[in-house]
């Protein structure tokens, strides 16, 4: 038999579908009832699944807006992506000290003081220390002073481009108001998702109080994210406030195997942003749940065995692929299978099944043989050739 690959692609609506069956447990997408999304008083907001980034709700999600010190999440992401030794010592510069008293958020660093990269990240993320951000940027920018900061900001913009964020641009590492410093709620959610993959980042942004030390003194840090005090599922992330940006917030929360990220830009009030974020997060926990979109051991395709007309082997998923299900979410699967080889062992990979939620890829699993089989004997092959129609047999020889 010719060893040509057979590509089989089809969509399966979420449900319990076996080979040869068209039934599904879920309603068709057109019959599903879309959830009633929260009404939040913010210029822009978004709620996404923290694990997959699947969009759940929002308003003006791609609108370019000032973002204040929520910028510091990208600053931290660049530092962590570099793999910098978090115990590496940094000396505070004159430029970093000049932000003390001149901007809304600082921790009072003094030129010549020495702190670790980890402590400066804590100061940047827990109470939004602009002086700490600039100390980090200068140190890691390579050039020191203004040149070092510019190099670091270039790296932030490169990272945004690498992530495919089309509505984000940075002018400084701390989010000072500038016409060319902006992002969108959707982009900031993606930046937060990337940063939250680092355990060091998660540890910092869920911290309510911390103490950092220079060679001469200790500095107490207190979070500006009130959700950590008032909302038990909260796990972070970062506040931001400036004259142009207004009160903004990136908030994350986790309950069981569900986790969500909400971003509000220019919310209607400093305290309102916290209650609004909680409302968005609760919408996620209430209306959606997490389950296996691809189930380990379930047959997703069957392929015919070479030279055996009536014999099939089932292809099963090698692993679970969890994801969100709920109103308004359309789940589809696509199966890609190659032609069965002459012989195979149980568990041999013969394809892949991918799952999509509202058109966005949510994961995949190898498809493996449910059982093994041996190569057909010469007698079976001869019988197969004997009963093949002459025109197909001739085409096979010519092919």
Describe the structure.
The chain folds into 2 domains: 246 residues, DD-peptidase/beta-lactamase superfamily (Beta-lactamase); 107 residues, Peptidoglycan synthesis regulatory factor (PBP3), Domain 2, CATH 2.60.410.10. The N terminus is likely disordered. A hairpin with a 2-residue loop joins β8 and β9. The strands form 5 sheets. A 5-stranded antiparallel beta sheet has the order 2-1-9-8-7, with helices on both faces. With 399 residues, it is of the alpha+beta class. α1 packs parallel to α6 and α3 runs antiparallel to α4. The chain contains 11 helices and 16 strands.
Morphology call: elongated
Radius of gyration: 28 Å
Q: Output the strand order for the largest sheet.
A: 2-1-9-8-7
Task: Catalogue the unreliable spans.
Answer: 1-32
CATH class categorisation of the largest domain: Alpha Beta
Q: Determine the N-to-C terminus distance.
A: 10 Å
Category by helix and strand content: alpha+beta
Per the CATH scheme, the topology name of the largest domain is Beta-lactamase
Which percent range describes the beta-strand content? 25-35%
